[in-house]
Automatic annotation (TrEMBL):
<feature type="domain" description="Solute-binding protein family 5">
    <location>
        <begin position="91"/>
        <end position="484"/>
    </location>
</feature>
<keyword id="KW-0813">Transport</keyword>
<dbReference type="GO" id="GO:0030313">
    <property type="term" value="C:cell envelope"/>
</dbReference>
<feature type="signal peptide">
    <location>
        <begin position="1"/>
        <end position="32"/>
    </location>
</feature>
<dbReference type="GO" id="GO:0043190">
    <property type="term" value="C:ATP-binding cassette (ABC) transporter complex"/>
</dbReference>
<dbReference type="InterPro" id="IPR030678">
    <property type="entry name" value="Peptide/Ni-bd"/>
</dbReference>
<dbReference type="Pfam" id="PF00496">
    <property type="entry name" value="SBP_bac_5"/>
</dbReference>
<dbReference type="GO" id="GO:0042597">
    <property type="term" value="C:periplasmic space"/>
</dbReference>
<dbReference type="InterPro" id="IPR039424">
    <property type="entry name" value="SBP_5"/>
</dbReference>
<dbReference type="InterPro" id="IPR000914">
    <property type="entry name" value="SBP_5_dom"/>
</dbReference>
<dbReference type="GO" id="GO:0015833">
    <property type="term" value="P:peptide transport"/>
</dbReference>
<comment type="similarity">
    <text>Belongs to the bacterial solute-binding protein 5 family.</text>
</comment>
<dbReference type="GO" id="GO:1904680">
    <property type="term" value="F:peptide transmembrane transporter activity"/>
</dbReference>
<keyword id="KW-0732">Signal</keyword>
<protein>
    <submittedName>
        <fullName>Peptide ABC transporter substrate-binding protein</fullName>
    </submittedName>
</protein>
Amino acid sequence: MKPTSKALLPVFFLLTLLIAACGGGNSSTSTAPSTAHTKAPENKQVLITTIPTASIANFDSLDPAKATDFYSASAINMIYSGLVVLDDNLKVQPELAKSWDKSADGLSYTFHLKPNLKFSDGTPLTSHDVAYSIDRAFQPQLKSPTAAYYLKYIKDQEKVNNGQMKTLIGDSLITPDDNTITIKLSKPIAYFLDSLAFQCSFVVEKSLVQKYGEFTSKFTDHLSEGGGSGPFKVKSYMLNKDIDMIPNPNYFGAQPQLKEVIAPFYKDADTTRKDYLVNRLDDATIPLSNFASDKHRSDFHQQPFLTISYYAMNYNQKPFDNTKIRQAFALAINKDLITSKIWKGSYIPTNHIVPQGQYGYDPALTGPAGVKGTAGDPQKAKELFQQGLQEDGYSSASQLPPITLTYASGGVQAARDEVASMQQMWQQVLGVNVKTSDIDLNAIFNDESLGANNPLQFYAGPSWVADYPDPQDWTTLQFDKGAAQNNMNFGQNKGPDAMAQQAIQAQMEQADVIQDPNARLAAVNKIEQALVNYVAWLPIEQQTTVLLRKPCVQGAAQNAQGLIDPEDWGKVYISTDTPCTSATVSS
């Protein structure tokens, strides 16, 4: 997912407020309704939540093919459906599809739809609607920022996207009857179903879309008329105020017990906590300044989130064309100290590229040069640094070219403190004075996008959020030859290790098509360790979801992406436990 600056760290706390609505607390396991809780009357089954509306005055887009941010995605997952969905443990499960068959060569998937599917207005939903929605996402007039990226390996999609073909329907999207659709691929990727769970493939109602302009997304202003097939439908959507959702009576799964979900927009994220404490909200974010005290509250919840905050060293700029110097910079950092002192325990120190909580995570992974733990190794850092200096013909650190770390704090003091702490560690351990430049986030994005011509020497990544829970999202997508995210120029440089890095890139592509999950896991773990050894990224911490949630919100479960299986909304209810908001179902 689009990288996000530490300037937006509170956003990550807010993005997970879906969890606040769903119970489960510090666990990612399902929480069934308990007999210890009494369900409140039907007119009290109202959830007032800041998912997915904190810190924004409006959604980026409620068009599944256009949305790129978490706020929009959270709402989209409640309103629409796709062929498949990720469950509480990030495993692919049927959604609109009841089953599917994969061809022996892995180049086609045939999906069989559940019977009697309908949109929220009662209109039948068929395989033709699925094909239309996926094809629409690739149409150049729509300019979807995600389809060609997440569904890259649907055969001939690039020809439609660049105008060479008019449609994929009848080509790589085949609908032999109303209940069957076959999707053909150009490459037998092992993670296709995971990527298909991303919202750009979700089904939209053709008649509503075309009524308001097929490639304009204006239909999203009229979702009270229909348009989706998820557990909820839109009752009202008022810019700068709120979105109000009610159960979709035509939903194919378990009907939500909640009678209404109201999500008010909050420009100031910290205000959510204030309103929560006076019972205006059922969930709220926790500002860093309140974390130390709030973590002892009974309504406090925290769990790992699939986001890694990292720094990158440009392989095309000295002195970071030298592997040992990169390793020295990495091992000079005490990540434990940074996460405990600066982030107050709200983050998890890590050496990982593939985060905890998803397939591909390797608990046996070490830091660079085999160093275990996340506290760094000053002595090893000094040894590697001296070796690197000698390899490059330097007699001392004073001969190094000036080093500048560029980052975007966005005014967040903790982000500044993290950089200052690392500056001090590099000075103390390596004797290197690293200058810093705190600039606008978009300026970093613009420079990064230049790839081989990226002028940034050393910069905050700043963070990567899982698009789908597959290691390809953290390996090939980031570091392969020509990958848009390969801004640090791994394998595309003139350094002495370039050929070895290119061999790793080839291994990534091979791993992407390994069909046996155990064999693929072994390959991915080996690749990740190599990337860490080369310091392709300098990971610092894995972010977590941190929030407050009223004890009256019961049921459901969440995954490490901060989303829930739409069918789990049928388990969510308001109990008579206090404190709670006093909302009643609106007329």
